[in-house]
Amino acid sequence: MIFSDLEETYHGEHIYDALDSVSPEIRDNNKDFELYRRLQRGGRQVLDASELSGAPEAFSNNGGNQENAGWKLDKWKFMPMVNRTFHEYPDIKWYVFIEADTFLLWTMLQQYLSRLDHTKAIYAGSPSFIADELFAHGGSGFIMSQPALSSVATYYASHKPEIEQLTDGHWAGDCVLGIFTRRSGVQFHNFWPHFQGDYPGLLPYARADGRPVMDDKLREWCYPTISYHHMSSHMIRDFWQFEQEWAKSHDRTETLLNKDVFRDFVMPQMMEGKADWDNLSDTEVADANSLEECRTKCEVQPDCKQYSFGSATRKCKTRTDPRLGKPSNGTISHWLGPRVQHFEQDMAPCGTESWRDPYVWP
């Protein structure tokens, strides 16, 4: 099922209105629904570019654009969406929810779900917090078993006014879903690191980079991933092609690890420089006034793997663990190819790491 804020047929696919079960008084009068009301009257042609969320380049904004008209609607979609899904398909073993900029590795998902007990009430994904509220991060994707979704749908039917009141005062629909999933009696299960909140070019293959992680001793390098987030359409196309080629050359029982993704998908993109691209070099270097000088500053540091130079700022930055990075106007990024290759070759061998069993957390 595909959900949006406008019911239509798009390229032969039926799109469901995620908001059609929201109370009419809210849909007709709540300020969050101004865009929705225009869409119902005039269709998709009433949209202009400023009202769209834009390309997923704003990776640093984990809270999203809360002033964007689409984001204001988004928080209202989660509870009605999961409720509608259950009533359309009440007897499915597993329900998997992803967003438009999420990439799902289908073969890895199948491998993982085959290990789990679908008769247990499981609500799982990558853990996230708003204040003290724990929930599965929507952009990373999340999973519910049939008993879990049944409990949520039952709770929704008997507590709809309470749910809509809390949603109105909140800003994140995935958090709202987490709150009421727990109130329905279903606990959160941790699927990290198999569900990721970034795309492969931003994954911390060697270190956590200051971001909070569930276990700083766990080497993501050695684990498989089921989902990536913040994927633009061309990223999804390229990674899908990579996944297909990998599947052709490997048995279906083999597991695609993050180290394989780095070696065969990320690292080849580091063999030449990129204009208008930020490779997340994080150590500023003084006295480098050109791209060539910046490269020299990196080369004289034995552990430097990459560098970036700002065309306008004239700032040179370097980094010791390689990252692919993200688009950024005015930044030029390069990597020292042989050093990146040595980085990959010198990583400590993986041991028995593989799929982690989901567990109630914290």
From TrEMBL:
Q: Which residues form the Fringe-like glycosyltransferase domain?
A: 91-186
Q: Which GO terms describe its cellular component?
A: membrane
Which parts of the sequence belong to the Apple domain? 282-319
List the Pfam families hit by this protein, alphabetically: Fringe, PAN_1
The pathway that the record names for this protein is:
Protein modification; protein glycosylation
Where's it found, cell-wise?
Membrane
Annotated membrane topology is: Single-pass type II membrane protein
Q: What class of enzyme is it?
A: transferase
Q: Tell me what this protein is called.
A: N-acetylgalactosaminide beta-1,3-galactosyltransferase
> Origin organism of this chain?
Cercospora kikuchii
